[in-house]
Amino acid sequence: MARTGLSRFGQQLLPVLYQHRLLATGQLHRLLTPHTARPVYLLRQLGQLRELGLAESADRRTSRMGRCEQLWYITPLGCEVVEAGGEIQPRAYRITPKAAASPLQEHTLAVGDTGIAFCEWARRYGDDCGPLDWEPELAHRVRDGDSRLGDDAFLVPDAVLRYTREQDGRRQMMTFFLEIDRATMEVARLGRKLSTYARYGTYIPQPPGRRHRTGTREAWRERYPAFPRLLIVLSGASDAVLERRIDDLRALAAADSRITAGGHLRAGVTTIGLLAEHGPFAPVVTPVLGDPKPTDVRLAAMSEVPAGR
Fold first, then answer.
1. Residues β-bridged to residue 293
2. Which residue in 48, 74, 159, 215 has the fewest CB atoms around it within 10 Å?
3. 217-243 exposure pattern, b = at least 16 Cβ within 10 A, e = fewer
């Protein structure tokens, strides 16, 4: 990262704000300073970033117990500093003060909670999943043609998360598409997005101008060593409501031939409460297809990619 007079911790903090767009003080504490009882040093460093014009904060719209919570985001100057360092993949998106204070903040924070849950359990397990191991809203093309004709040209997961599991002397690399549902989306819409994930699994891009199909390799193989698992994480309602949403989603998936065909889509659904309390490798995930018996995020047998030793 370019020299800015920041401490080593400040230089670690700035890329996290860059990548995750908006994080609460408590989330940053869990992610970066979990060894401390209170985020005193973290707040000092955030204050320094703000004084330098590299970060700014907004108030959370719905505070807990009448208290206001600060939400932190990077400024355009902070983005320039991170990108000049060349250590993180540049992103075109820039969060604005208006966006940071908008109703969308709760969804962004829910994505952060999911990634942080994976990180916290990785520490307990001795696995690898750190603050920069999930990326929000990566676009994946799912059809040929002019992308200006509609949003259905791209699949945009809420995040793509990478996790390396240590078990029985072996290392396994896993990639997840994350979809976060705060019980504000119609289940039918979530079902349609499931169908889009299935379409991405079979999409073979064609060279421009070709009238006949000539491509032979699925697009996902250019980005991933194995087709990522899909994990849908529910929150924002009572357990009874979330259980009904799981049942409805399973029914929609079973009726969609695109989802059931091929067998490449491994999708499961859980709640943020179960994921945070029990961890991703406890039986907290209900498969979207087939037997509803809870399993873990690996979603049954699937070829894994050995990691380097």
1. none
2. 215
3. ebbbeeebebbbbbbbbbbbbeeeebe
pLDDT in tens, 50-74: 999 999 999 886 555 556 789 999 9
Tokens of 145: 């043609």
How far, in Å, CA of 248 to CA of 242, rounded?
10
296 and 280 in contact (C-beta within 8 Å)? yes
Residue with token string 């240590």: 166
Half-sphere exposure of 277 (CA within 13 A, CB side): 8
* Residue whose pair of structure tokens reads 């909670």 in the numeric block: 113
Do residues 60 and 69 lie in contact, with contact meaning Cβ atoms separated by under 8 Å?
Answer: yes
Q: Measured in whole angstroms, how far is the alpha carbon of residue 3 from the centre of its chain?
A: 30
Here the contacts of 236-244 (C-beta below 8 Å, separation 24 or greater) are: 236/110, 236/181, 236/182, 236/183, 236/184, 237/183, 239/271, 239/273, 241/183, 242/183, 242/271
Q: Are strands 170-181 and 229-234 parallel, antiparallel or unpaired?
A: parallel
Three-state DSSP at 177 gives: strand
Q: 210-260 pLDDT, tens per residue?
A: 555 566 789 999 999 999 999 999 999 999 999 999 999 999 999 999 898
Closest CA to 205 of 197, 196, 213: 213
Scan for tokens 């400024």, then name that residue: 75
Q: What is the mean pLDDT of residues 273-295?
A: 96
